[in-house]
Structure formats: C-alpha cells, structure tokens
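fold-stage: in
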Amino acid sequence: TFEAKSTIPDEWIEKIVTVSDSLEFDHTLPPAHMLLGGECRSVVRECKVLSGKMIVKGNIYVHQLYTDTSEGESTHCLDFCLPYSQILDVPDVTEGIPYMVSVQIISDTERCVVGPDGNNTMLDVTVKLLVQLRTYKMVEYALAQDAYHCHHPLSMHQEEVEFCTMLGERIEDTVVTHTIPLVSERWSEILDVILQPQGCQANVRDGCVTGLWKSLVCVLAKDVSGEVVYNEYVADVPLMFPSEGNSACLKIHLADYKYRVVDGRLELQMALNVMMREYHCTTQSIITEAKLQKNATIKESKNIVVFTGDLIDKDVKEK
C-alpha cells in the first residue's frame, strides 16, 4: 500500500449582491437621447481570508453606446468602473485553505436620467451579482499497488488513477496588445468595438503555464456613404505565467480595453484579469478489483523456504 493525498470540494457558499450607482457623464460628452446598447463585465481584484470570513473585492466595468440626436447621426461611448466589496461568512475557513471564487453578472440595467444641468447627462446603473465561494479540504488515501495470498492465486485488475492536490488560486493582472488587419477600405468611422471572450486552454511545462486566449472582436462602423456596417474578427492572444504546479486552469476576465485605427489596422490594448488555479497531479497504478480463486492452490516450490517467527539464527537467515 501507499499513501496518496488529494483535495476535494468542501463547503459551497453563494450570495446575491446588488450594486447600484448614478454616474455622471464626462463634461466633454453631449447629453444622451437614447442608449443603443452595451455590456457589463465583472472582475475579482482581491480575496482576503479572515477568521471565519472571506472578503471579495472587485470591479464592474460598464460600457454603453448612445446617440445624442433622434436621427442617430452622432454616437458616443460611456465607460465607467464600479468597485464592489463583499464579506462572506465561512465558519471553517482559515489562512492557507485552498478556495475558488467566482463573481458572475446575473442581470444589469442602465438608463439615462436628468442630471444637475437639466439634461440627460446621468446614467443609472443597477447590477445584480452572484458571488460564489468553494473551499477545499485535503484527504488522504491508503491504496494498494500489489496483493498476494499464501495458498490461493489472485486475479487482479489495475488502473492508472490521477491524484490532484490544489495548491491554490491566485490573481494575475496583465496588459496585452493585438493587431487586426481591417478587410474594409471603405470605412470612414468606427462607432464601437466590443470584445466577447471565448475561453482559454492552459498547459504547464518547465515551470510555466501557457495558454491561448481567444476573443471575438465585434466592430461597428460607418462606411464612406454613411451606412452602418458590422464585422467580426477572432483575436488569438498567447499568455504565459510562472507556475508552482504541474497542472493549471486559467479563467480570463476582460477588465478594460482601448482601441485605435492605424494604417488600416485595428490596434487593441487589453487589460486582462487572470484567475489561475494550480494543481500538483500524480498518476499511480492501483488495484481496483481483486478476486480470490479458492478452487485453485499455489504450488509450493522446493527451492523456497518460508521462515516465520523471530527466533531464527542469523546464519540461517543469510542462507
């Protein structure tokens, strides 16, 4: 037998949180006539473990496109950042216990309201968040790799089993750039760019975790005749971080991004919030089934002598 260790899910805690605020337009932007659409993104910035409690802090990024005229001839973008902080009661949590945190947006509502100047220069935002926390505990196993019987043969079945120990979850912030050649030469103005992350696969090798983060780039623009056009592109962004384990999982959140058009290319600068979960995994061959063949006996070999007991002469043992 041998001793194996692994982490398994323990406590699961959920909390629904509502974040609301009235946000004032930048003084350089005109009043709004109508919101055309947008998005909200949530990222976790910090997690702290106290005695029996967990503090989760993060930001909500709000992006909205609006028009200042009824004809929709002129459009503008609104970008705001709303911080949030929540305390979760976790009676058994202590420093060093592995955990996993997730904050998802359940719903969001944005509407333009009248500001102090008497115009629609305020944005009322209400976001409902689902904060989830899962803690893990360490368990130990005593597993068999070999077995025998003194008198009857055994038929055994063995399998390769992977044991993973979660080392922890850490947050990395990184800024990456990506350039996309624009296929249209007839564009006169880009109205808005929205990124839709598609996920990331992670691999660990030589102490580094690498991943290829994919995002759908949605471009809304006007052509030279004033017609609105829409195009989609795929951005592949390579990522690399040091790792203490031999396996990892990457969850990428888009925090903020900027874009500009230079020489027929769309240049993207993206601030990514990376939640990296690290594991140490080992593979062992263990016995999963053993059957005793009682109808058969083991043939004794004349060349083998089995000694039992402790009162055996040293010379006899050596022979």
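fold-stage: in (second)
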Amino acid sequence: ETVKVQMRPDQVIASFSANPTGGLPRQWYPMVIFRNKKQTQYQLVTDQGKTVLHAFAAAATSGLMQHVDLDPSIQPWLSWDWKIGNLVRISDNERHITEDSPARIILGFDGDKDMLPFSDQIMFETARVFTGYDFPYATLMYIWDKNAPVGTIMPSNRSGRIKMLVVANGADSVGEWRGFTRNIVEDFERAYGEKPGKLIGVGVLTDTDNIGETVETWYGDIHLRQARD
C-alpha cells in the first residue's frame, strides 16, 4: 500500500526510533527477490538507547521496503546513518559473483518504462514473473563497497536500471555509527543522465548470498529534507 504523505521541510520516511522493539517497522514489508535463497533477518532493536533496525545476513539476501509517493525536487536531501558490524572480506560490487554489501539504502523512482529499450522492458517483465514484484523505472542504491572509491557509480550486474553509488568503503568506521547526507536529485542525474521522476519506494538491503559470509548492520532513521543540514 502506497503511503500518501504531505510535503513538509523534514519528512521522516523511516522512523525506526518511533517503533517498539522486537518486530518490523510499521508500513515496511519484506522484499524477497530470490525465493530459493536464505533471507536476511531484520528486527527492531535498541542500540545506545534508541530503536534502530538490525540486519543479520548469513549467506542470505532480502530487504525491507516502504512504498512512498514523493517529489524529490521538493525534498532532495536524504540523510541517514548506519553501523556495520564487521568487514566482508571479498565483496566486490563490480563483479557478478561477489556483488554483495553489508549496507544499502535503496531508492526506487517512477518513470515511463515504454520509453526504455525493448531489452529493459523484457527484463522488467521477466523479473515480475519470477519475483512477483513490479520493479521501478530506475533504482538508485547507496552502498558500502570493499574496494571502490567513495563517489564511484556502477551499474548492477543484474540490470542497467539499477545504479549503485559508493558512500563508504573498506574499514571506513566499521563498528561505529556513521551519518550520510546526499542530494538524491543530483545523484540520480549523475547516474542516469536525466531528472528523476517521483520517489516511489525506499528500502534497505543487507546481503551476503554471493560471497557466503556473515555480517550484521544497524540502520537509523531515514529523512528527506528541503535543505541540507
């Protein structure tokens, strides 16, 4: 169910801290893309006196997603924080067989799929048949990567309609809370060469299904703002 929201200067799109611990955040649902693989475990927990979302992946992959309906040109500044519990030794998102990350913030954008090449339209239809999901016109992921420099934009090995932007790498603040602020309109234009449509989905994804390792990550509240802090 899409969450209709009124625009205001600070839109909390993932208020994990306002939820009770022990379950999943309200209005968020599991995003299971590969039904034949183990799923990442998500649960609201207390960390440093605040409720946050904890992810645990042991050779597993799945995410959590919330439907939204937002104009990114009005509130372009996305801020969040995460904490990575440990390094993943062989993660490399530029290679298909090692395309995993302990921390990802996922943004799904609307657009006219009929204007895309036929190969992309076939990919969307095939993905819908196999997963049961209608994938967005374009997806932008903010990720941790072991090797790529911060600022690197790379396409997913699974689809050119998924672009990944590295915001942290290596042993960057492992075991510590780290905050990020990004202009999602500017980042989308860098990644796709066009202006973004409506923001229709926000998610998190911790996955280690390709490399087979175990990792845990904590996610804090996610905000959209009209102006940068």
